[in-house]
Structure formats: C-alpha cells, structure tokens
Amino acid sequence: MAKKLTAVMDKVVAKIIDDERMSDGGIVIPESAVNLPQLTCQVESIGDDVDCVEVGDIIYCHRNAGMDILVNTVPMKVLKDEEIYAIVSEV
C-alpha cells in the first residue's frame, strides 16, 4: 500500500533529490561520493506554521538535519523549517 506523509506544525517533508555531479572528464559522481555537507531536496508537504517555503520548492539542508525516512522506497527528510538553509531558484 502506498503511503503519503503530511507535515504538521513547523515541519517540512522533503524528497531527497539525487544530485549527481559530472567530472571534467565526463564521469558521473554520485552525491554519496561527494563530501559536501548539504543535501538538495524537493518540498513535498509543509505544516500549517511554515511560511518560508512552498510545495515544489527545491531547498538545501544539512545532511544530518531532521529525520531520514524511507517512504515507498523514496528517501525523504522531515525537517523543522529552521533547518532549511536556502531555496534554490533559476536565474
């Protein structure tokens, strides 16, 4: 049975995006091999007390922030809104 999470209060549910990088020689480097402290996530649900992000926003959070969970085999994070470092946008 498929599950859906709904964020409550000041929480944000975000899907971890597999952010692969490409080396200069064209080799794909998975995020798990890069020692960067941040994760790129897409907001899936927000609680009633959250006003800094919207569903669908791409965000950066610390790799160790919040709670890691697996929902329908998809890695996700449950974060407090204060654990979000930045919202990513195209320029």
Keywords:
single chain, 91 residues, mainly beta, 10 Kd Chaperonin, Protein Cpn10, Chain O, two-stranded antiparallel sheet, globular
Helicity level: under 10%
The name of the CATH superfamily reads GroES chaperonin
Provide the gyration radius in Å. 14 Å
- How many strands, what sense, and barrel or not for the largest sheet? 6 strands, antiparallel
Strand content: over 45%
Structural class: mainly beta
Which spans have pLDDT < 50 for at least 5 consecutive residues? none
Terminal Cα separation, in Å? Answer: 40 Å
Number of domains: 1
Characterise the protein shown here:
The chain has 91 residues and is mainly β. It has one domain (11-88): GroES chaperonin (10 Kd Chaperonin, Protein Cpn10, Chain O), CATH 2.30.33. The chain has strands at 11-16, 21-22, 28-29, 38-46, 58-62, 67-71, 74-80, 84-88. The strands form two sheets. It has a six-stranded antiparallel sheet with strand order 6-7-1-4-5-8, with no helix packed on it. A two-stranded antiparallel sheet has the order 2-3. It starts with 10 loop residues before the first strand and ends with a strand. The model has no long low-confidence stretch (mean pLDDT 87).
